[in-house]
Amino acid sequence: MQKLMIEGGHPLHGSIHISGAKNSAVALIPAAVLADSVVSIENLPTISDVETLASLLEDIGGSVSYDGSKMDIDPSSIVPTPLPNGRVKSLRASYYMMGAMLGKFKQAVIGLPGGCNLGPRPIDQHIKGFEALGAKVTNEQGAIYLHAERLTGARIYLDVVSVGATINIMLAAVKAEGRTTIENAAKEPEIIDVATILSSMGAKIKGVGTDIIRIDGVEQLNGCVHSIIPDRIEAGTYMIASAAMGREVMMNNVIPDHLESLMAKLREMGVSIETADEQVRIATPSEITSVDIKTLVYPGFATDLQQPVTALLTRAGGTSVVTDTIYNARFRHVDELNRMGADVKVEGRSAIINGRSSLQGAKVKASDLRAGAALVVAGLMAEGVTEITGLEHIDRGYEDLEEKLLDLGARVWREELTSSEIQQVKSS
Ligand code: EPU
Q1: Labelling 223: which of 2, 163, 263, 388 has CA 20 to 30 A away?
Q2: Is 78 labelled as part of a ligand binding site?
Q3: Active site residue: 47, 116, 176, 371, which one?
C-alpha cells in the first residue's frame, strides 16, 4: 500500500497531455461485447478501471490484447457467464455489462455495482429501460438477473437525467427489434462517444447530444476501430490545479467546448484562459475571487469537478458556495480539507468556503476518486508536505498523475506505508 507525498508551494508551469476519457472508456469496453468481430479502442487511459473491465471481458470468454493505450477485443467467444461478485463489484461502470449482455444474449447476471461512495446511487432508471424493452429483471442476493425472450423497441422517458441509464439503455436497444426512443436523455460527451462506436459497428442511432435519442435496432454489429475522446474531467482537474498554483500551463489534447462551464467559472475567479483547437492555456493571477457554483447535468458545471474546485476556492478572497445538485453526499473531502487548515462548512447540499486560508500539509485520506483529486489540489497549495492515502481511488481515474505533475514542476512522489500506517488507514 502506498501514499502520495506532495511538497506544496511549487508553482506549475509547462504543458501537459490529457489522456482518453475514463467515463467513455468504461462504457466503450463493455460495448465491444455487442460486436461479432474485433473492436479496437485507441487512446485508452492506463487506469485501474480499464484493466478491471478488460479482465471482466476475459472472465466471460473474450480475448483481449492491451498495450496500455490500444485495446483489441475479440468478443466472438464471449458467452453470457454470470458475473455475480468479485471484480464486478469493484467499479460502478460494471453495470454497463448489463445493457451489453442483455443486448447481445438477451440474458445477464451481474452483481450490483460498487465504485465511489457518493451517497445513494440507485439504478432504477436503467431497470425501467430494460423492462420497457421486454426484459424481466430481478434482484437476487445482491445480483441483478436479466432475461428476455425478445427485446422490442419502446418509448422510455427517464425520470432522472442519468448518464449511466442513457448509455445502458442504448447498449440494450441497438439490437432490439424496432425503434427505441429515450426521452429526457443525458447529453454528456461520453454518451456521444458511445453512440459513435456503436454507429461504427453498424448501429442506427440519432439525436445523441440532445434530450431525445432514437435507436432503430439492427440484427448484427461488426468490429470497428475507435479513438476515445479526451478526458474533460482530467483536463478540468489540471485546469483547477493550474488555477491554484500555476504560472502558465498549456493543456494539450482537450476539447475546449466540453469545459465551457468550468472555464466560465475560472474566468469569474480572475483566471486568464485562452483556447485553441485542442488546447487550453491557463494563467493565474496572484489572487483569485470567490464564486458560487451549482453542479448540473451537462453542459452545466460537472459534479466530478465540484470537489477539486472546492479545494481551489479555499485560496479565493471572500466566501464561495458550491452546491451539488447531482449527489447529496459528495462532500467527504471537506473534513480532510479542514484538517489542512481550510474553513469549509457543509450545509445540506452546499459547501460554504470561507476563503484565503493558508493550507498546511497534513496526513489525509482520499475517500473517493474526485475527493482524491481535491486533496492533490490542496496539497499543491499547502505549505509543507501532504501525505494522501486511499490512492486506489485516485488510480482508478488518473493516468500517470505523478509524472504529469512532475513535468509541471510539482514535487510529488509515492512512499510505501509502514505497517502501523496500514492499520491506521484500515481502521479510519
Ligand atoms: N440516478 C437515479 N436513478 C438511476 C440513475 C441515476 O436516481 O437509475 C441519479 C443518481 O443517484 C444521481 C443522478 O441520477 O443523483 C445522476 O446519476 P448518473 O446516472 O448520471 O451517474 P452515473 O452514470 O452513475 C456518471 C459518471 C460519474 C458522474 C455522473 C454524473 C461514469 C462511470 N460515472 O455516473 O462519474 O459523477 O455520471 O455526471 O460515467 C467520476 O468520474 O468520479 C464519477 C463518479
Answers
A1: 163
A2: no
A3: 116
Residue 302 CA: nearest ligand 1 atom is 38
CA–centroid distance, residue 121 to ligand 1 (Å): 7
- The residues, ordered by sequence, that sit 6+ positions from 96 with a Cβ below 8 Å of its Cβ are 26, 27, 30, 31, 164, 167, 168, 171
Domains identified in the chain and CATH numbers? 2-19+230-427 (3.65.10.10), 22-227 (3.65.10.10)
pLDDT per residue as tens digits for the range 156-187: 999 999 999 999 999 999 999 999 999 999 99
Please give the pLDDT value at position 116: 57
Sign of CA dihedral 233, 237, 239, 243: positive
pLDDT exceeds 70 at position 119: no
Query: What residues contact 67, with CB distance under 8 A and at least 6 apart?
Result: none
State yes or no: is 116 an active-site residue.
yes
166-203 b/e with 16+ CB inside 10 Å = b?
bbbbbbbbbbbeeebbbebbbbbbbbebbbbbbbbbbb
- The 8 Å CB, 24+ separation contacts for 300-303 are 300/261, 301/261, 301/262, 301/265, 302/232, 302/233, 302/236, 302/261, 302/262, 303/327, 303/330
**pLDDT value of residue 90:** 80
- 356 in a known ligand binding site: no
Kindly report, residue by residue over 380-418, the tens digit of the pLDDT: 999 999 999 999 999 999 999 999 999 999 999 999 998
Q: Report how far ligand 1's centroid is from the alpha carbon of 405 (Å).
A: 28
Answer positive or negative: Cα dihedral of 19, 21, 26, 29.
negative
Is residue 375 within 8 A of residue 386, CB to CB? The reply is yes
Amino acid in position 249 = V
Residues with CB under 6 A from ligand 1: 23, 26, 92-93, 116, 121-126, 160, 162-165, 186, 233, 303-304, 326-327, 369-370, 397
Radius of gyration of the chain (CA): 22
Residue 86 has pLDDT above 80, yes or no: no
